[in-house]
Structures are given as C-alpha cells and as structure tokens.
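Structure tokens please, single chain.
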Amino acid sequence: MSSTTGTRGESVTPANPASDTVADHTTDVTALLERGRALSTPVLRAAVDRLAPPMDTVAAYHFGWIDAQGRPSDGDGGKAVRPALALLSAEAAGAAAEAGVPGAVAVELVHNFSLLHDDLMDGDEQRRHRDTVWKVHGPAQAILVGDALFALANEVLLELGTPEAGRAARRLTSATRKLIDGQAQDISYEHRERVTVEECLEMEGNKTGALLACACSIGAVLGGADDRTADVLEAYGHHLGLAFQAVDDLLGIWGDPESTGKQTWSDLRQRKKSLPVVAALAAGGPASERLGELLSADAKSSDFDSFSEEEFAARAALIEEAGGREWTAQEARRQHAVAIEVLHGVDMPETVRAQLTALADFVVVRKR
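Here you go.
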C-alpha cells in the first residue's frame, strides 16, 4: 500500500489506498490529530498520575513520556486518531470540542489497556519503535497496568456525575466487551487451519471497529446528542474501524518496519488469520492451495520460530498471488466508502463533516 502521508507535520492528499473512492482534496489532518493530543494529553497524564507506584511509571513509559530509565522522553504516543474522532464527535452534535475531552481520554485509556495486554499475549517485543512494557517491566506489570487503565477510563467518565456521562460509560463498557471478544476470537483463530472471511470480519469488527465506533459517538453523547445521532456516528466509526483494520492487516504483512515499528512479516510470524490470509485461502486456485498446505504444515512445525526471512517472504508472495492482498485493499476502500455515506444520516456543520471525511481518508492511506 502506498501512502502520501505521515502523522506529523504533513497534510494528507488522499490517493490510492487503497483510491478512487477516497475524496479528492487536501486536508491538514495533522492539525486534527495534534488538537486531539493537545486537549486530551493533560487530562490523560493527570489520570495516569493517580496510579500507585510503580504502575504510574510503567504507564508513563508505555505512553512514551519517559524512557526505560525513567528519564523524560518525547516518544511516539501513537497516531491519536481516537481522541481526534471523539472531539469531532462532540462538534458534530453542536457542542464544543472540549465537551468530548473526557470521552477522548476514556477511549484512549481503554485502547492502551488493550495494547498492553495484546503485546503480552502476542509476544510482541516492539511497539512504536521501543521495547514493549512486558519486555522492559515484566508480564505482571503489563497485566496490572492494563487493568488499571481500564478502571481509570470509567472513572474519568463517571466522575463527571452527569446523565450524559452515564450514557457514555455504558457505550464504552459495551465497546470494551466487544473488543475483548474480538481479541479472544483472534487468538482462537491462530490455532485453526481455516477461518471464513465472515468470521474474520466479525472478529475485526469487534477488536478494532467497536472502540473506534465508540470514539465516534462518545463525544456526541457527552455533548448532549440523542441516541439516534450517536448511533449514526457509531456506525460511521464501525465501518471506519473495519477499513482501519484492513489497512493494518496489509501493514502487518507488507509494512515497512521503519514505519510500523514492528518486525517484517509480523502477522505471519504470529500465524494470524488476518484478512489477506483468509481471503487468499478462500480464493481457490494453485497459489491458494499451496498456501493452505504450507500454513497447515506450519501449525504442526516444531521449528516455526526459526523460519528464515525467505520462508515468510514465500508465504507473503503466495498470499498476494492468490489475491489476498488486493481483496483486502478493496475491502478497505469499500468500508471507507460506507463510512462516508453513513455520515449523511447526521445533520452537522459542513466543516466537521469535511474533517471526519479527511480522517477517514487518512486511515486508508497511512503507512503505520
């Protein structure tokens, strides 16, 4: 997947994601992402400061605020797409962006709770170009800090003490349960020889789509929107999440490690049944059959962990030959188009609509 963007200091010119369904305009998405960081980070840091030692330090390391030795750091804190969406969600409902800040922080806390646990479960040693928390501070701290961030997310919302906060917390709790369902499905699929495309999409809708959907509605709820408006924004986020994950799946196999911060062929190393793999296996034909034979043998192999780069590259080539890469790129475009269409169901300021569209475009052209 080609990209014309980074997340800092650049405008996004939507082109070729995956492509023609992406709007033809240039928007400074960086400003939206930076606004999300600027408004949410002080509240996020204040929440993390409530944690008992050493969890506060471990969490600060995970967020990139300090290095492994505890020195201040300007580490990569992630793309900040979810906070940006939460603030725009509030504005879509006619409220000020600031009304969405508690929602932005709550969603970011849940997202990072999931990352801490996912890294440990997947055995990932690198995230955002640094050693993961479990690698530096141990598995126990990764589990405890993840749990603490989840608890903080609900605290941040409920301490507002408003009816809107209660509604927002219900949406966040529901999204978190779906996220956990998706992670459980993802892990179980690693041990199955075949997974259908429908099962994979359901898993990714839970694992990624649910929390993005929540981000897109939680600000509106806190801003006083009715359930119908919040539900439409949530549907936009769900389809955006599926597009986001489709791109993530492509990057998980063909992404540049310098951009992604992960190993080459990272999803193949973890035997993930991601969309390109599942689509390739479902395609039929010689490449699909050969891929199925190799993956079946891999599942029984005792020396899988010592496979060479060439062996993973050969599997990636078969996925591409069978059509898995192109199918996934098309799915990213399709979900992007549906997300944009859904937005027509909400009456909102045109500037906000354009910004939500620009963030959707960013999701399908990103390279990390």
